[in-house]
Amino acid sequence: MRIVDFLTLLGGTNQQIIVQYEYGANRHGKKTGIVDQVQFINLSTLEIVDAKQPQIYLTAADTAKPKHLWELILLLKQHNLQRFMYVRYGEYLHPLFGYRIGANKLLLA
To answer: How many domains does the chain contain in total?
Structure first.
């Protein structure tokens, strides 16, 4: 998902909610039938990557302080809005496809 698409989808969303990455919903894939324990992880930093397509990495870290949606929006608007968004957690890089709102949190997926 591009930054511009993400920001457009957020129209009307409460900007005071916490943003977290939802990790582990089904890491093994649908074919195995294994559903992992889901973890909610805070975002720590943003990293710009100029590869074949412009990208931005949202780094998730277990020890990071929670960010509010308004903080994330402010950080994202400082960059090229055509960049594709990814979440980096540990050694894994996950493309951002969307989000859901649950328990007063915006959960990136």
So the answer is: 1
> 84 is in which domain, residue-wise?
3-108
How many whole angstroms separate alpha carbon 48 and alpha carbon 93?
14
Cβ proximity of 95 and 72 under 8 Å: no
Question: How far apart (Å, rounded) are the C-alpha atoms in residues 83 and 87?
Answer: 13
User: CB–CB of 64/19 below 8 Å?
Assistant: no
SS (H, E, C) 28-61: CCCCCCCCCCCEEEEEEEEEEEECCCEEEEEEEC
Rg (the chain; Cα; Å): 14
pLDDT in tens, 51-88: 778 899 999 888 889 899 999 999 999 988 999 999 99
Q: Name the token pair of 66.
A: 């929670």
